[in-house]
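call fold(seq) -> tokens
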Amino acid sequence: MMATRIRMAVLVVSVLAALLIAAVLVAWLIVDTDQVKKRIETRLSDILNLDVQIGQPLHFGLLRGPSVTIAGLELSRQGQVVATAESVSVGLATFSLLTGNVHPIDLHIKRPKLMVERTSPGVFNFYEPEPGERDALSLRRLQVSDARITYLDKASKMEWLFEHCDLDLSHLHHDGGMPEQVFETLAIEGDLQCDTLSQGRFKVSELSAKVRGDNGVFELKPMNATAFEGEASGWIEANLSSPTPALRLEYGLVEFDFGAFMGKLNPDQAAAGKVDLELTLNAQGNTWQDLRQSATGMLSLSSGELTIDGYDLDDELEDYTKTQNFNLIDVGAVFIAGPVGLVVTRGYAFTGMLQGSGGSTTIDQMISEWAIEGGVAQARDVAFRTPQNRLALTGALDFVNYRFQDMQVAVIDSDGCAVVEQRITGPFHEPEIEQPNVLVAVTGPMLDLVKRGVRAITGGDCETFYAGSMPHP
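ret:
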């Protein structure tokens, strides 16, 4: 008797399943695709406040459950295309579909292209959300394949490009409500990969990260990449649960290629060596400007031996009269090597090192430590040493206004006093560079002055320019 009942139950379930599949199939066959396409275009246009066009007929599928594929999607505003996608596939919940409700459970966006422009703080070209509450959302899976994203900040004229990016998120959901409530309840987990990320001369490849978010706190951890042939690793955390979002970052770039960096400054510049970079940063604010103005943290670079071909610094400095023929500022580019250096040096051609005496410069050791406060990086201990000379840098880099703040590069003696110095001020893209200033008028070789010291030769006192950790040669 029990076996008979079980067989009967299995038969009933099988019949119901068959009827369910048949009902969905019939519903799919009688759908007016043109009407559905127009409704989707209208609904998306209302949600995004953009003009939405679907270029191809909708495709309905049943193989892996009810689904609809939108091909040839284009989003524009005032005639300007801001986003396209080769296709968007939406998987739908079967039971809700039979009750007349459309409940998406899977979303797969293939080959999207997004052109984002920031025209002013908080104003973007691609999205102007309608006021009011949002409906709750729950997706089993969200996939983005082979995405290309450009981001242009018109105020700073900085453009970022993300290419061949894949995103795979599982269990994405939020409880709806006002935008701040959405962020507070949004939960995501998955993986992010991008073949390349570039900004001007700066390029990162093989970017990968674990993505997590819950209760308004989102993180990319761990986050790995390759830059200047070195290995980058670290994490980023964004806390959006409060009215003022907060950002935390820790990152390191191990043994990046110094020659690759110098080649970005000038393709004809040959150099060699390895440099380590460490960066920690904390910031808060509702706009990028707020984040820059509130940024605090530290930046450090250090290296063993480095070489720069085509220029012999020690030979140039042997006779102090030659100091008028080159820029110490060009040599100072070494102090801000790496990704930060490319931001600082954009628009200014560092070519002086190619116009020297030939030969090569050997840097025995380099240290570059900066304290960041209010978006300004202040030099704390910045110096490098050649076999015969020691050079140091003072001043600051203002990343809020993109300016040099009273920056000076100097050749220093054994007591840390400046023998020759040069000052740079003004915007990163068009700095004001003074002529090198020989502070001590002597007729002997510069090397003798550097070795014996200003005080020993002049019999007077001098103001200490450098008192950091870099020892004299």
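Residues 2-29 form the longest helix (28 residues).
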